[in-house]
Amino acid sequence: MKEKLEQIKNKAEEALAHAADIDALEKIRITYLGKKGELTAVLKGMGALSPEERPVIGALANEVRSFLEKEIDEKKSQITAKLQNEQLKREVIDVTMPGSKQDIGRLHPLTKVLNEIKDIAIGMGFSIAEGPDVEYDYYNFEALNIPKNHPARDTQDTFYIEDNIVLRTQTSPIQVRVMEKQKPPIRVIAPGRVYRSDAVDATHSPVFHQIEGLVVDKGITMADLKGTLEAFMKRLYGSDTRVRFRPHHFPFTEPSAELDISCFVCGGEGCRVCKGEGWIELLGCGMVHPKVLANCGIDPEVYSGFAFGCGLERIAMGRYDIDDLRLFFENDLRFLKQF
Amino acid sequence: MNLPMSWLNDYMDIDVTPKEYADRLTMTGSKVEGVENTGEEIQNVVAGKVLSCEPHPDSDHMSVCMVDIGEGEPVQIVCGAPNVKAGQTVPVAKHKSRLPGGVKITKGKLRGVMSNGMICSHEELGLTAQDLGYEPEYGILVLSDDIPAGKDIREVFGLNENVVEFEITSNRPDCFSIIGLARETAATLKKPFSVPEPKFSENSENISDTLSVEVLDKQKCLRYCAKMIKNVKIGPSPSWMVRRLHACGIRSINNIVDITNYVLLEYGQPMHAFDLRDLAGNKIIVRRADEGETIKTLDENDHTLTSDTLVISDAQKAVAIAGVMGGFNSEIKDDTTTVIFESATFDASSVRLTAQRAGLRTEASSRYEKGLDPNNTVPAVNRACELVEKLGCGEVVGGIIDICGDIKNPKELSFRPEKINAFLGTDISLSDMTEYLKALEFTVDTNKMTVTAPTFRPDIECEADVAEEIARFYGYDNIPSTLLSGEATVGGKTPEQTAKDRICELLTAQGLNETYTYTFTSPSIFDKLSIPADSLLRRTTKILNPLGEDTSVMRTTTIASMLEVLARNYNRKNENTKIFEIGKIYLPSGKAGELPDEQEIISMGMYGGNIDFYTIKGICEALADNLHVKNVTYEADSENPTFHPGRTAKILTCGKAIGIVGQIHPSVTERFGIDAPCYAAEINFTDLFENINSDIKYKQLPRFPAVTRDIAMLVDRKVPVAELETAMRGAAGKTLESITLFDVYEGEQIPEGKKSVAYAISFRAPDRSLTNEEVNGTFDKIVKALETKTGAQLR
User: Fold this and answer.
1) Given this structure, which CATH class describes domain A109-336?
2) Which end of chain B has less neighbouring CB within 10 Å, N or C?
3) What would the DSSP string read from start to end of B379-426?
């Protein structure tokens, strides 16, 4: 019996050594360990053994059995691993081929820049105000201290709808509408579409966009104007940006200023973008004119405020190095897809 | 406004570089656009003495000259001009020199003879007869013999002039003058400054004995001054005057006209010179024009005037449009002997309107319309007389005619330094404030604490204006930067603004690209869109002065803008174009004096590839779904002529139409030049927003399994699936979870006029597992309802 067991063990080992796949392994298992298998047959024949031999042979048979079971398992995992390896090799793909992209649309570059500005403003406690494109002359001009026949009207070639109705030439009328409705403290920005009768070329469009800002409260100073806009510009153009305020004139602010930022291309050295000046003119601003406050029913002896306004296209053109204003309104997909 | 630096030097010494000058003036509010050197283009050109001049051995017209150019050894130069002679003083462009127009001169051989430069003509130096003050002979330019050899030719002709170009804002007409800019310069650079008083002698006659002046409209003519010059000798002006005028962009005419222009530039006071011979009755009347009166102006254009135009007339006829342009009939001629100088102030808005109406914007009108100082008229006309004397071109007649109209004196304003400091956020001392204001010729009374602006500063109307003057000279740079203090504000977006942002996200996520289109359009788009003649959409807000027909009305639909963008992309061969915009339409109220109703529209448009009606409808559905819009339904719309009658749906919320989605009618796409099916949708943002359910509550995830049954039926092909779904929902009861369409089929094996429709229906109860019997019962009810309500038959 003992020899028989040894023999089975050797034969099984031999067979296992040659087993190439899971099927072969299964056959071996059935051949030796199955219900009708050789080892099972040996165990069935144990009854014929003497009581002394029985435990010895029994132990040996179990030993052989567990040995074979272990060998088969091991072999099985070897084969599985090998099969999986082969499978993986067959599954090799060219990972440099392009992925299957979802076609996600893009926001217009003007929206992207505007969103950035809105986020900065909201972080500083501003709300967003809106107003009509078709506007009363009163809001667009008169309430802003630009009476009829004022020379400042010449620089804003106006589209008229009726004698006293215009397409707004600036977003400043929103200031007036806000101040009429809301009492201080006021902190708003007002983005919007504006119209001027300029023929279309690379730098002119009869339709473009501005963003207006307005702060009114007790004790607002010109120093606040400077500090707020400096912080704004540093957020928008980076903390290295230097800001310069130059005296200027707007009928609805007094004192008035133009804000230049250090050129974001050359950093102030002078280059093509800043025309060698090192500065880029970015926005107009000033302390709200006392007449404008009074026109809106706000007492200029108690309250003061500042306002600023800038062109959205100008900012986007600088940001993305766009040299032709017309691209914004052509909406060529090859342009839109770049942002 | 151009400022030649040499002119500024008449008033003060400028000891800073042009660059520093430009920077400092810019920072006090006189924005410098640029500094140009008039001699920039000429380099290395000097005066030379022709020592000898021999004929060229190999040419019949060239000469070989030895020229002393002030460098020791004379140089040899070949010259082709017929007028070159030994002994002349001439301009010499040396080896490696530059001339206007980018011309470079280097040495070289001319027909075998070495030439070390070029002797120049006046044209080669970029000079005109005007610059020289005489007509030079043909050939090289012969210079005065007292000019030493080697002297830079730019100095000879005063060409090394730095001209500073200023941007003058509309509130500062006083700075449209050399004196105004000198005053700003003095205040900026802290130099003493005063306007020199013109000095000249007069004869013993009196102008009033010859000329009478009458001002009939004293509202429009605030001041009228006149001086008379006799024994006038008309001729060219000296070169210094010509050069200065030229640097400021004014052409020299003759000495008398040039003097008026010179004073205009220097004092900012427009002047006019009349020939006394042409003033009928030796009379000047300042009056309103007669309706329909005509005048030919100096530019030889005829104008018909209206009765609100102010004219200068003699006893018979208008001789000038006041403040705009003189008349052709009274201009200065070569044989003029007696001149009347007019120096007057006219009402700003009257001049502005007149100039606008006549289509004439002149140096004079552009100054008048900003408001000039009536007190400047006398000094200006006196300066003109001084120049007449200096140029020796006439005899100043004694006396002055000076008629004052309604002149307003500047207001005395309260001066509260502490208030100004509080306003600016500064701590400027009273003495500094006073110093800044005094440099600008303001009167400061520190006892009464008042400040009065000079008469040439009508822009100073209130304390904030005074604050600006102080801030300008204190330096905006020196004002501290502080962050906002005071009551905090919360800030943020309104729910509408947030919803619009979300819509942009949802549409871009579905592959649509955002566009910005013009909000005005052509009235012809309504025909292009097949919009019927009686449609309300054709009632537009019209622009009175449009750039062109194609941008003359505010749009009442966004479809045309959308199709134009699609067409542009189609023509540029961009495939699969999917776009959207949230833009306004403008619906007029129909009443004069009322603003149109501006509504925001979400518009979408697309063409290409696999796009069909269900693509764009799916986008609308996903949009509504993600925004939690309540009760959205779609209803076939075959009535909209812009759209395909069989492939268009109204979008409704709670039964109210809020938009449209569909295929654009093929005739319409064809008119836009697109040879592919286009799909578009328009949804009214406000209507959509009002139906957004913002009250979102969590529903517990199901704990019991769902039971699904598929159902396939045959139904008339005309029955919309929405009807089938309504029938099923009506019959299904509480356990119905969802109805999902998964197949619609027509064709083989389906009877003519029928379609096969298949749904997966899912049932679930929240509190138990459904039994087969329960589900079967409900299912039978559904089948029955389908049969009775829609005529569907189970397959």
Assistant:
1) alpha beta
2) C
3) HHHHHHHHHHHHHT--EEPS--EEEE--PPPPPEEE--HHHHHHHHT-
